[in-house]
Design goal:
It is a single chain. Strand 1 (40-41) and strand 2 form a beta hairpin. The protein has 414 residues and is of the alpha+beta class. The longest helix has 61 residues, at 310-370. The protein has helices spanning 2-7, 24-29, 137-158, 160-167, 169-172, 250-305, 310-370, 379-398; strands at 40-41, 44-45, 56-63, 72-78, 86-91, 94-100, 115-120, 187-190, 199-202. It has eight helices and nine strands.
Length: 414
């Protein structure tokens, strides 16, 4: 139950209770948007009605959310019964929520009182008991849009004075003015013939007349629709797409224009106040600049008149000597670093030459290890050759420390 309460929210009735809340006969009379049947309750026929055709000062508006390919028609009008007002929300011709208050009807005051809106919400998902809609983002957006459109209708029909009265707590708390109950713009009645059940529109002069309990098509004063065989008079299709509202929202535009003008005047007033403050700040800034210049001049004049003392001169001389000593030490350190850098460069060159000579001798040793004396050569010749090679090696070792400047000495074996 707690999860269902979070998902589905039903509006509580506080200061009013429509008849359909406690009367099954009243509920069945508005159960269908376009009734096409007879409902018998306790042996007596329920007097059904077309709620959209039973309103006074009827107008149409359009609700077109982003998730729908086309707009949905909304019918607004004043209810003949004082406490019966709100939005009648149908789903596929069946009533789901009756007299749902939206927009200004939820606020204290008299704004929106007596206005009924009729909409067929086939794009919403009803609950399993067909008494509410799923509390989704689409449902909340629909209620919000219905509240705005109901406000537009109320302002256009009642005018700006009614809005001022509704928003004024003192006036709203005063005695309520009695207004006569409005009569419907149209009078529709259903034929009681079980094979017919067509709806017929009666002339305006029949609004104040009392109709019989059972009414048939042959009682119609219009000769064109006086027979049950004649098709039903055409009416507005609830699924028909309309381009826009059927009434001019001039009061809404006027209020918006007044709001823009009030906002413009408020911004102009704020801008003038800002400019005045800026002017005052500039004047204070100039005064501070003048005061600062005077203080600086007085300081400079006092500093020019004052002569340095003997202690100040001694401190200045000590500081000068200290800076000279630091500069001399710095120059000595620079010279020492340059000497060290030249020595390191010289050692690096000698190490490079030694590496090149060692590499050369390593190659010579590998080459001599692979050489073998020929078999036909005599031992004396071999010894002589070996002696010559040893002499050459001694000569190379003796001349190792005397390479040519800028290049490595190349050795040739005879």
């Amino acid at each position: 139950d707690e999860q269902a309460g979070k998902k589905f929210r039903r509006q509580d009735r506080q200061d009013y209770s429509p008849e359909c809340d406690y009367s099954l006969r009243a509920y069945c009379s508005i159960l269908y948007l376009n009734p096409k049947m007879q409902i018998i309750l306790r042996g007596k026929k329920v007097k059904t009605q077309k709620i959209a055709k039973s309103l006074n000062n009827t107008e149409r508006d359009v609700y077109k959310p982003q998730w729908l390919p086309r707009g949905v028609k909304i019918t607004f009008g004043f209810s003949p019964q004082k406490n019966h007002y709100g939005i009648m929300m149908y789903h596929r011709n069946r009533l789901i929520k009756a007299y749902e208050r939206v927009g200004p009807q939820l606020k204290p005051g008299r704004q929106g009182v007596g206005v009924i809106g009729v909409i067929q919400c086939d794009f919403l998902q009803p609950t399993h008991n067909k008494q509410d809609f799923d509390y989704t983002k689409e449902y909340r957006s629909t209620l919000s849009a219905l509240g705005l459109k109901l406000t537009d209708y109320w302002l256009q029909k009642k005018g700006h004075t009614s809005l001022t009265r509704s928003n004024s707590p003192a006036i709203a708390a005063g005695p309520e003015e009695e207004e006569p109950a409005p009569s419907p713009d149209q009078l529709w009645v259903q034929c009681d013939n079980a094979d017919c059940l067509k709806w017929r529109k009666l002339p305006e002069q029949w609004k104040n007349k009392k109709l019989p309990d059972k009414w048939y098509c042959n009682m119609n004063p219009d000769p064109n629709f006086r027979s049950c065989s004649v098709p039903e008079e055409p009416e507005d299709d609830p699924d028909e797409e309309i381009a826009g509202p059927s009434y001019d929202k001039s009061v809404k535009r006027q209020l918006e224009r007044e709001k823009r003008e009030e906002k413009y005047r408020r911004e102009q007033k704020q801008q003038m106040a800002i400019q005045e403050k800026e002017k005052q700040l500039r004047q204070k800034d100039l005064q501070l600049q003048r005061l600062g210049a005077q203080i600086q001049q007085s300081i400079q004049s006092q500093a020019g008149d004052k002569k340095p003392s003997h202690a100040d001169l001694v401190r200045a001389e000590i500081e000068m000597n200290r800076r000279k000593q630091m500069e001399t030490q710095y120059q000595k350190m620079v010279v020492e670093l340059k000497k060290q850098e030249s020595q390191l460069h010289k050692q690096r060159e000698e190490l490079l030459q030694a590496q090149q000579v060692a590499h050369h001798w390593k190659q010579r040793a590998e080459a001599s290890a692979t050489m073998k004396p020929p078999e036909h050569q005599s031992p004396a010749r071999h010894v002589s050759a070996t002696g010559e090679k040893a002499g050459d090696q001694n000569q190379l070792i003796a001349e190792r420390g005397k390479p040519a400047e800028g290049q490595v000495q190349k050795w040739v074996v005879g």
